[in-house]
Amino acid sequence: MRFSPFLWTILWQAALLPFAVTLFLGWSGRAAWGAVALTVGFSSAYALLYTQHAFPPTQALDWLALSLPVVLLLFALRDRVSAAGRRAWLWPLVAVSASLLLLLWPILKTAEGRFLFEAVLAGLIWWGLWCYLERESADGTVAMLALTVVACANAAISAATGSVLTGQLSGALAAAAAGWLLWHLNAPGMARAVVAMAMLILGSLVVIGRFYADTAILPILISLAGFAAVPLFPWIAARVRHRMVALCVAAAVMLIPTGIAVLLALRQYAATPGEY
Amino acid sequence: MRRYMLEFRGRWLAAVMLAAGAMLLPGHATAADAYKTQTGSPAGTYKIDPVHSLAQFWIGHLGVSELPGRFDKISGSFTFDPAHPENSKVSVEIPVKSLDTNYARRNKDLRGPDFFNARQFPIMKFVSTKLIMGDDNEMRLAGQLTLHGVTQPVTFNLRHVGAGPDPWGNYRSGYIASAIIRRSHFGMNYMLGGISDQVKIQLNIEGKRQ
Description:
Number of helices of chain A: 11
Helix content of chain A: over 70%
Radius of gyration of chain A: 18 Å
Structural class of chain B: mainly beta
Number of strands of chain B: 11
Strand order of the largest sheet of chain B: 1-4-5-7-8-9-10-11
Number of helices of chain B: 2
Oligomer: heterodimer
Number of strands of chain A: 0
Largest interface: A-B, 26 and 22 residues
Distance between the termini of chain A: 14 Å
Radius of gyration of chain B: 24 Å
Order of helices and strands of chain B: HEEEEEEHEEEEE
Strand content of chain B: over 45%
Largest sheet of chain A: none
Order of helices and strands of chain A: HHHHHHHHHHH
Strand content of chain A: under 5%
Shape of chain B: globular
């Protein structure tokens, strides 16, 4: 297959640009700056890929342009004034509740019982995973590695069974997270703000993909099991001499459920005959 | 054998004469003139007949073709007053979910947030504001098209096809409306590099007089 300028543009916008921007901005060792780098890196792709911005926001994806800077500011401030662990669940709860309400508000009036049940369940999973990853972010590298792998899987799942656009944006998040990771592979440290930003973006994209584009639910849920490898890392690290090898083993463990999820999504994609 | 042949020829001749007689009966027409455009008055208020109406579109793909698509469901009404065109009005509603481009995966993508966002904007709507009469059956119909949550002025070229009674005692009238719109004007900007901004749209409308 010839790699056309059209495909190069998509690859550039959805992967290379967010990766390069985050890598360029993420050199600083300060935790809050990492969150800024990730947000700017993702936003550069978001600005190019999502060209339907409206203010005041009308569509769910419009809200990302507002929620990203607000949550970034709030969580950077939180990390300055509040020690980890004290009411750590409250901030993600507020962010998830507000985001879910804003993202689903346009379709709430036509919602049926099952929709509301699914929305509440999605919110609980989103909030639970956010708290869990923040708790595990004492070594932010592992949490962000998991977020990168799951975002990558969501890119494939969403593009195959739901929306190509949310798939591309998930790819952009994975690329930006990979850009942050490169600076932190050998430097474990607190990364609550960057985890918070990545969780906000990933959760928003999953919710939009599921509720607006009917992205397949089973692959999404299976891919989230990739986060289960995060608490295994200390156990893996204790048995492997080099940190890099331990990270590779953890990534391999994360790839098992996410790989199965992607295979399921691709199988569903292939079930529809024909191709674009 | 000869007697059998004569009998067969006689039966064949009788069949031809019967068929020829049937053709002379009133109501029968030959293939060439069987279908005629009805030229009754189109004046009146009509309800759109969804079974005989359709909205279609053509959109450029990769700069090499124009891909057709259609919306299978349509509803609305129109009033036509030839003596006072300013009293004429048209209102059409199309459920976006009824989109069909002959490929299930593409239909899903088009209905999703990348393009139409049918979950949030389930109905496409056109409401006329002005009818400009032209020569013969040609007219121009200006109005407001609401698509993807955005309302923009659109002017259709309108052609009246015909009007007259149907076999069931109703009175029908039909039009073809066509226009070219830019999807970016309605906030649909995704993949403008591979899928054209300009979209040809055509509405084939048949209404039953109320």
